[in-house]
Amino acid sequence: MSKKVPYKIYLTEEQMPKQWYNMLADMKVKPAPYLNPATLEPLGVTDLYPIFCEELAKQELNTQDRYIDIPEGILNFYKIYRPSPLIRAYNLEKALGTPAKIYFKFEGSNTSGSHKLNSAAAQVYYAKEQGLKCLTTETGAGQWGTALAMACAHFGLDLKVYMVKISSQQKPYRKTVMETFGAEVIPSPSETTKVGREILKNDPNTHGSLGCAISEAIEASMSRDDCRYVLGSVMNQVILHQSIIGLEAKKAMELVDEYPDIVIGCAGGGSNLGGLIGAFMQDRFAGRKAPYFIAVEPASCPSFTRGKFAYDFCDTGRVTPLAKMYTLGSDFKPSPNHAGGLRYHGMSPMLSQLYYDGYIDEARAVEQSAVFEAACLFAKHETILPAPESSHAVRVAIDEALKCKETGEAKKILFGLTGTGTFDMTAYSSYISGEMVDYNPTDEELEASFSRLPKVE
Amino acid sequence: MSKKVPYKIYLTEEQMPKQWYNMLADMKVKPAPYLNPATLEPLGVTDLYPIFCEELAKQELNTQDRYIDIPEGILNFYKIYRPSPLIRAYNLEKALGTPAKIYFKFEGSNTSGSHKLNSAAAQVYYAKEQGLKCLTTETGAGQWGTALAMACAHFGLDLKVYMVKISSQQKPYRKTVMETFGAEVIPSPSETTKVGREILKNDPNTHGSLGCAISEAIEASMSRDDCRYVLGSVMNQVILHQSIIGLEAKKAMELVDEYPDIVIGCAGGGSNLGGLIGAFMQDRFAGRKAPYFIAVEPASCPSFTRGKFAYDFCDTGRVTPLAKMYTLGSDFKPSPNHAGGLRYHGMSPMLSQLYYDGYIDEARAVEQSAVFEAACLFAKHETILPAPESSHAVRVAIDEALKCKETGEAKKILFGLTGTGTFDMTAYSSYISGEMVDYNPTDEELEASFSRLPKVE
Known about the structure:
Two copies of one chain form a homodimer.
Chain A: E1 8-9, E2 19-21, H1 23-26, H2 45-48, H3 54-60, E3 67-69, H4 72-81, E4 86-88, H5 90-96, E5 101-106, H6 117-129, E6 134-139, H7 143-155, E7 158-164, H8 165-170, H9 172-180, E8 184-188, H10 194-202, H11 210-222, E9 227-229, H12 236-255, E10 262-266, H13 271-285, E11 292-298, H14 303-306, E12 308-313, E13 322-327, H15 349-356, E14 362-366, H16 368-382, H17 388-407, E15 412-417, H18 425-432, H19 443-450
Parallel strand pairs in A: 5-15, 6-7, 6-9, 7-8, 10-11, 10-15, 11-14
Antiparallel strand pairs in A: 1-4, 2-3, 4-5, 12-13
Helix pairs in contact in A: 3-12, 4-6, 5-16, 6-7, 7-9, 12-13, 16-17
């Protein structure tokens, strides 16, 4: 018999996970290796040292260790803002009139407003341990930059954030938040790098782009030996750190004698989805009962559902190693109407392999007006204003709960609520005023993009 | 011996308070009665029915019942976003090098970003129980309006928010948040009321004011029998509902065998301060060991430290009953340089009486650049970006902890962190860029304001 389930379940400090779970160790087919884009040779751990600090490079390619101890410095940082609550959406269930039991793991109640802090903490910690003094990164919407600024403030590292110029103008508050935590925020393109100066020379009025900000951040990190470039999604190491989401969620459900029938995560680069499903995927790897896994992506940037499983660059600037993943092509950009985040052209190589091999059961693309409809409904009944990214998972959770209403099944649905929408009110405003437009890329558009994929045997 | 104290202490659902604590019942000297401004006659419960719904009017004047049951509908709403955590500021302690133990009760992790939701929930619930269909209110910065919109969405009441026009232009996102929760937000002055039309006729380009927004909200509520005007601070009923802050904080400290030596709360209208200190003040009323209570207010709006204890209007528009309280005069406005919230001219009559009678030990006025300095230090070490209002308490908590460093005392300091600063980045930006200016009203300015106080024997 099930215990009475409270609205919110918090683990105690003692119950918080002391180890991350590394899906790579249990995958029968490992992700294809990263390739040097010039030679097409696979990259080993030491090849990654100029890019990542050593511990992170090892984690990136670690296919041996199922569990990796979380160092005490990171555990102590996690204790400041974690555990995040597992919440039973009683009010949403009631509003939908569904027999389904809806649970969500809420990662948005820290100041960065999202789950990104879980990996930022780890990446900054290892950089500090290695004696590095400075990190660089790029940010678009600003969640990753904020998370990294918070972690750098805690561990005492300098941080330069190259922020897409148009974003820094449209979201000056995000810039100020990062500055409050001590980060230097540089609108990109800038005069601080060669690549920035070059772009400004050709187009002084450019709005900037994520690709350009990445290139500037990488160049800035290369100019100092004690500096590294860090990034917040896609990589195996990030999904490793994010595994704490699923580990906590699974443990919290165990405390009330529950286990999900369906697990739903939104997917951009894959950091949240990978982190949420890990602990449950372990059950499937081991041949035990496991949930049905659904990845949700925007119809306007549908890498899982309409992309190719192929080698591609991880960035639009084509300076990174090649990774084999579901991709729309590294220069694919979602329509300017696209407001819902999750605008990455590719998908985590690890999750791509899992989807290709059938371990992730389903990928579903949803249109943004349906996403914001779900977001508003959720906000009214659960009092949390969800981030547009998270709202993709909200949409599918509601759809699955409504199916249960049809069939009368009391399925247990777990989804990841990755963050809050406080800094995304422009998108909400566009939805509320009826100005929001949906967009699906045409087949021709995608074919043209696929034709520019790098040629790899 | 003290137990090992975790970073965060959450009560379980079973441990959450089921009753509010009513300080009025234990006060030896009760606050002076509200007066009808025309007749100067004391107002009884039924005189308040046209203004407040009946249950709230009763609570406003209830000096009998020490505990008031929290109805199940409100308890269930509290369970969605409460309990709020009691947090041990280990990292701040370490950064300060103090032997003091710093605790804070964090009320900002709901979408409204502040403690205001505790009373909004109660006020909307009772309105619904009475069969009302609609509420009106005014909002400046938007925290109260957002909290009320969230509660109205939950309980299914219509809400009209009159938002000071300049605020609705400067904070369009706050407006959108309220709209997302289904509220109608009307920039004030507006054409929807007689008083609004009058003001616009005389000054079509006015920026609006809180006084005008209050007058419009009251007029709009008067136009319908099933509608009431509600407000989020100052009143006894609000402090009653907010008592949950102190009750939870006290219980959480008991769980780790702790009791505060000092309790620090920021004070604007008094809703947070009153809510935080209540459960501890009960110990003082009963002659038991109690903490030293410090109220913190901005030097630019110093009602406790430089105001008069006298009858005054509760609003700048002079339409409300008269209340006896510490006041700077109902038309006092802090300098436009003032960025730190807490800009109310008066102070809760209940708290004013407690301060006058020596139950609140100290009121301290702090300047805003010192407040923001403390806020930035706190954010860096505790990862939470505090609201400017809350940061007043942060400032004094840090000052007290630094005194402990001098003396070597390991005092236990508890302060209220009422909210987050996510929507206040303009103020942070002004501090970071060095443009923030401190301001203290001159004696002449205050004397002129006092001379306009209503004449009451």
